[in-house]
Amino acid sequence: MQSTGQTENDILQALRGDSVWGGGIRDFVSEETCTRTYEQCIKWGLLKFTVLNNHMLRQLIHNFPEDAKNSKTGKPFWSPPKRFPTALEFDPNDPLHMGFVMAAANLRAAVNGISAPDGVDPRDGAYFRQVLSTMEAPCWAPKEGVAIQADPDEQVENKSDDTAESVLAELPPAETLVQSGFAMTPQEFEKDDDTNFHMDFIHSLANLRARSYGIPEIDFLQSKLKAGRIIPAIATTTAMVTGLVMFELIKVTNGKRLE
Q1: Any idea what DSSP says for residue 197?
Q2: CA 157, CA 24: separation in Å to the nearest integer?
Q3: Mean pLDDT lowest for which of 42-46, 185-189, 227-231?
């Protein structure tokens, strides 16, 4: 990765994910979080629901309670446009909750080349509820020393003793992974394939976050339309800015005055 211009911090993040909440390559290959069966993918989906929609928000509330004051101005921290969040508890009978776990589990399975058991529909809510009834979401405990950005201009960094070398040393050797049949297949985002769970994941996670912050939820079609606008907008804006930069570069090379 260093040969592609990545910094050591970039490599570290790719290996271990976030310093507080994890992720990265370690999430795929460590014994605690690797997935080798479809049921393990469902358990991983439940874990991700819990971390993203409960633990992260409870940590935020722990750091900044509802009556917290801004350390610079003394004004209430949760003043508009900020909204005080609500941490969500997983409910298998809530279609949005189940939709997230279902999408996350199937995306994880696709990355690891795992198929649903014979005769099981990957969108069968009853099957997912039955499997989830045997599982328990991890309990939350406050993490001390976690820095959360309170101001857009504030630089926040959570200290960690991890290095790329130390994380690599924790991972199983490549030969061991190959012998165990480990495989990964990167997924390219495709919003118009309703069978690949890409939009299901984005739609459910976006609405879960909206629900936590008291923001009106949107339907699946609206999610697809918004996702369809974001990606082309990024590409076209980048192309336009690059074109304008090239115009200025041509002026420089021809000794013309910059405007």
Answers
A1: S
A2: 18
A3: 227-231
Q: For the segment 209-224, what is each residue's pLDDT rounded down to a tens digit?
A: 999 999 999 999 999 9
CB neighbour class for 77 (10 Å; exposed up to 12, middle 13-18, buried from 19): middle
Alpha carbon 181 to its chain centroid, in Å, reads 26
- Whether pLDDT at 256 is above 80: no
pLDDT in tens, 105-132: 999 999 999 999 999 999 999 999 999 9
For 184, the token pair is 């990964």
pLDDT digits (tens, 9 = 90+) for 175-206: 888 888 888 899 999 988 999 999 999 999 99
- Residue 2: DSSP 8-state: G
Alpha-carbon separation of residue 45 from 119, 142, 226 (angstroms): 21, 22, 24
In order of 112, 238, 249, the CA distances from 243 in angstroms are: 40, 9, 10
Q: How many angstroms separate the Cα of 251 from the Cα of each of 71, 237, 241, 243, 247?
A: 48, 22, 16, 13, 6
Q: Indicate the DSSP class of residue 85.
A: -
C-alpha distances in angstroms, 159 versus 20, 166, 213? 9, 15, 28
Q: Which two tokens stand for residue 116?
A: 């649903």
Cis ω for the linkage preceding 81 (within 30 of 0): yes
* Helices marked H in 17-92: 24-29, 38-50, 56-63
Q: For residues 56 and 128, give the distance between their C-alpha atoms in angstroms, rounded to a whole number.
A: 24
Span 18-44, average pLDDT: 87
Cα gap 225→196, rounded to integer Å:
17
Check residue 114 and give its pLDDT.
Answer: 94
Q: How far is CA 6 from the centre of its chain?
A: 21
